[in-house]
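We keep the chain:
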Amino acid sequence: MKRATFVAAAAASLALPSAARATQLVLGDDAFVRDAWRELRGRTVGIVTNPSGVLSTGEPLADAVHRNGQIAVKALFGPEHGIRGAAGAGETVGSSIDEKTGLPVHSLYGPTRHPTAAMLDGIDVLLFDIQDVGARPYTYVSTMAYVMESAAQYGKEVWVLDRPNPIGGVQLDGPVLDPKFKSFIGLYPIPERHGMTVGELARLFNEQFGIGCKLRVIPMQGWKREMLWADTGLRWVPTSPNIPYARTTLVYLATGLVDEGGVNNGVGTDRPFEYAGGYGVDPAAFRDVLAARRIPGVEFEAADWVPTKGFWSGKTLHGVAINVTDPHVFPSVRTAIELLAAARAQGKYHVPASHEQIMDRDWGTDAVRLALNAGASADAIVASWQPGLAAFKSLRSKYLLY
């Protein structure tokens, strides 16, 4: 999505009448602005946020805090895509001055990804308010972990203002990360689809994985684990240029994991992550193979598309459009395996040697690539995840808030 389109979409989300935004859900930042901020009198704060860090009214937290006038804000901190969300995926973000509030903005996706001692000078408490998408490879929770690590190192406190997991808190899917493949898109041994909120993840990271900072989570009120984004009554603000709609979060883990295997995912179109296929794919045959697999909660439609960026830019590609019909049961990560297996059946699955490490990093293991290369069935690959998922489900239970 181009910068102007992304910014316009975010602005449209914030400009809706209040009646259209009515919800019984109280976000962590709602609770902070309403009551909890009073506990910060006499202390200074830094805010880690981006355009998705909005109250249920649609007002950005940074603007609400700045408007309050009684909270001493020292600086803002921006993750990947920047404080106002205009930078592309993987694009280095510089530090700056925020035009709206006049506050200094420290980039956590530039020369450093950890807040430094200089950045934290004079700050007592760091507020974290960013909407996650429920996927391990999405970098915002890694930024949160790095903020917590710096807070532990420099004696600062972290308050995580909790937000919904847009794909729900029930379903777990995908392999648990092998620590050998630790990276910024996967710091800890959790599954691709973890079913936790950012506040719950913060508690898990802090205690189970030994960060040990002084942490407080401001919980939501009214959120339940079975709720998806559509159930919240909230308007979606794009979390990054390629997650423009709430529905994108449902398919992100289905197709965000297939591109290194030679399958295009529609990034560079107006439906990012909602396509799967490539050059020379037989769309009807691809659709029929996937339909025969009877994957719950999804239908596949033969489709053509022309991405405007990436390796396939300007080429007409063929494959399927992914239409999620029941998001409560749709197995996103299993679907990624089904797509790769279907591509393999057409001779379209290929991982160049130069992409092997990238694919293993994305999956958090080399087991998926090696199994696909060896001809293992989708069922066998998915079955191999189950012991790890069962162990993680037990582990995460004491960190759940809802």
About this structure: DSSP finds 13 helices and twelve strands in the chain. The chain has two domains: 3-162+197-232, 248-387.
